[in-house]
Amino acid sequence: MISEAFKVSFKRATLYRANLISWILADISLYTGTFLTYWLLTSSINSIGGYFPGEIMLYISSFLLVNNVFAAFFSDAVSEYLSQVLSGKLHNMILKPRHLIMVTMLSNINFPPLITTPFLLFINIFYLRAVNGISIQYYLLIVSGAITMGFLYFTLYSFGLLGFRMQMLSDVIFQLMQVSERPDTVFPYTARNILTYIIPVFLFSAVPTRYALGKINYTTFVWALSAPVVHFVLLMIIIKVGLSNYREATH
Questions:
Q1: pTM (predicted TM-score)
Q2: Measured between alpha carbons, how far is 129 from 138 in angstroms, rounded to an integer?
Q3: CB neighbour list of residue 224: distance below 8 Å, 6 or more residues apart
Q4: For residues 186 and 106, what is the distance between their CA atoms, to the nearest angstrom?
């Protein structure tokens, strides 16, 4: 099942190789431009939101790495899932012999960000070693953040099963992703807690970075690692409730 789904994704990605290469080059150019912009900015400013130049570069590299892992394994999957919800054809996916979310993910791996991940990882390791050295726990938080982001998208789009307007939800998601790129320290203490524990967008940037800098407590660390499980359970509940009232669209 896993190997076959991976083959389907690979064949789809390599069907138009020129398109694949152009996406890879575009991603590398985008990331290079982002790092260059922040490098120029930090070269003339002592700190941004309390983060020193090397720390803010680690912050940005953490954010981009989490987003890239998400893009590789979740972005196409959540788009396909949303398409099925909106078209009223989700029942076609439910009838497949494996778990709905698993089937959707494995059949929609996004190869351009998967291929560019080593590029981001190289830059991330450079800044990580510069501030406090490499740790397995840091990269567990990176992976956990990417998985949490994926389940968060699936959860929000699952509200479409309950009749919510998807355009409104898409706007909310876009705004939340914008927040996660900003230094967490520019927000009041209460807002930081909300954006860490309730709407956990800082799991995608601030929490891994602050762990690398030795600036988070044990509770936040445990929450960050357990967040994927919590959001997966929430996702399953919403899907179960939503499917009980779900009907195929008529055309």
A1: 0.87
A2: 12
A3: 141, 144, 145, 203, 207, 208, 211
A4: 38
